[in-house]
Amino acid sequence: MGYREDLAAGRIAFAHLIRVWHERNGWSHKVLPALAEALDLGRVHNSQISMLRNGKLASPGPEVFLALGRINRLLASEAGATGPSPSLRARLGSNPELLASLEGSALAVEMQGAPVPGPGEFLEVFVGLRPPPAAFDLRVAEGEAAGLSAALALLFTGGRPWRLCREAVLAAYPASRRQRRERFTEVMAGLRDYSATELEAELPDLLLTARALGLAGAAGFEVDGLLEQLRQRVQPG
């Protein structure tokens, strides 16, 4: 593969990483630029985030990677699924709208057993020199999302009516954001399907759900294994 192909593949991989990062936290595209400005971590514009998400920003400047990487490491050390630490809350005290965006979830891009990606690692993903962390590189085609959603509901309910297993399944699902729990409930009940982007972002918590439910094999595989199991359950045609 030539360098042009590496660059094109890296740009798509980075777009996927940014989309999953936003979806997993329930952020708008304004959150990362606002964080960079509020904490003087670099400069990235709303329009650049939008273009990065769509793989349309071919040559972002160094300040973009500086901002995103520094934000990521900050969130890894001072935030998480339950929101910002007291010290970060204090630093954002004059920006209540931004603080509210981080309250429910402020997860960083991380990979178990590896250093938290910073500016250099993000740049390497963008130019195709490094793959994204596995949990942020779970690409689902839009055309397969509905079938995978149905397979997921069947896996978690064991084919039982939703009303008979609702409490146990919801207790096993770890996400706390109301929007995500409502969406999960609708998928389990067969009222809607995940989109490809939604499903990609949900997979890590869906694996934790499978493990909490004690499903066969769930303790022995990672997120990519869950996705492969769902694909095997989707009937062709």
Protein architecture, described:
The chain is an all-alpha fold. The chain has two domains: 3-136, no CATH class; 142-233. It is 59% helix and 0% strand. The chain is built from twelve helices and no strands. It has helices spanning 3-25, 31-38, 46-53, 62-78, 86-91, 96-103, 119-126, 145-157, 162-172, 178-188, 196-212, 223-233. α2 (31-38) crosses α4 (62-78). 35% of the residues are buried.
What are the key terms here?
237 residues, 12 helices
Describe what is shown at a glance.
This protein is mostly helical. The protein has 12 helices and no strands.
**Which series of helices and strands comes N to C?**
HHHHHHHHHHHH
N- and C-termini, Cα separation: 34 Å
Helix count, per DSSP? Answer: 12
3D shape:
globular
How much strand content do the residues show? under 5%
Main sheet specs: none
Tally of strands: 0
Uncertain stretches? none
Q: Please, how many domains?
A: 2
What average pLDDT do the residues reach?
91
Which range best describes the helical content: under 10%, 10-25%, 25-40%, 40-55%, 55-70% or over 70%? 55-70%
Q: How much is the radius of gyration in Å?
A: 19 Å
